[in-house]
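Field guide to reading this record: the first block holds the primary sequence, the second block holds the structure written as discrete tokens, and the final block holds curator observations. Each block starts with its own label. This record concerns TauD/TfdA family dioxygenase, catalogued under organism Mesorhizobium zhangyense.

BLOCK 1 — SEQUENCE
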Amino acid sequence: MLTKERITAVQHSSNVCADIEGFDFDDYDANDIAEIRRLWLQYGVLRFKKTNISDAQQVKFSRNFGEFVIHPKQLQEGGHPTQPEILVISNAMKDGKPSGAMGNSEATWHTDTWFYEKPPAGAILRAVQVPPSGGDTYFLSTYIAYETLPEAMRKQVDGRQIFFQNVYDKTGKLRLGKTEPKSKDFREWNGIAHPLVRVHGETGRKALYLGGTSEGAWIVGMTLEESNDLIAKLWDHTTGSDHVFVQKWDQGDIMMWDNRCTMHRRDSFDPNTIRIMHRTTTSGERPI
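BLOCK 2 — STRUCTURE
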């Protein structure tokens, strides 16, 4: 068996991600998993380069980090034929229909399923097939976003709640099971309020929590104009950071991120090429 002394982490210059070396997906024990968890909490994003593992191995590994969460897209076009824990992200077509979720379009900055009462703690994404170029994934730290806020802005956000409507997705489509709201004021729609600054349940560090879009978000207690202005500034500050890690995928690469303290986005890619990714998602707690 491996021991944690054989597992090393090499931090990227972005201060957002670390490469894991010395972990064997075919041969690991509880001590090895404890070390991976420690490094995951330390760095927020981990990368395992060019692994050669199966779907079943991915599910087994993921199970060590919490109960599985079924992503909303798994209930639509992203279900896996034999592994219900896996979300298939793919632009490939089968029998004239999408064989996975998300297609080839860009995915803008977001924290996964921010509109849930208990957003997932983490995700593990594995490259099954990658295009020659495009489809890169970007990560940033919301710890750093909070810690680098100007003092005046930090005072504005501390102790505040942010409301997210959960009726429409980012493309304007009704979410599964939702109905058209009667009111034009999204603050009266179904949604969830979370701390604008959340305290990580395991590390105790504070992270800025902006969800996945400024549309349909409102800082509770502010006028809509004040809220929109502050949210825009917070987004500019967060996504304008120099601390961004860019993952240019190779087949077999695995990215593992802590959804409680990171955000990510994806570039678009040529629709005439194929990109297939398999993702597992682990449960989290209600933000505090």
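BLOCK 3 — OBSERVATIONS
The chain has a mean pLDDT of 94.
The chain has one domain: 1-288.
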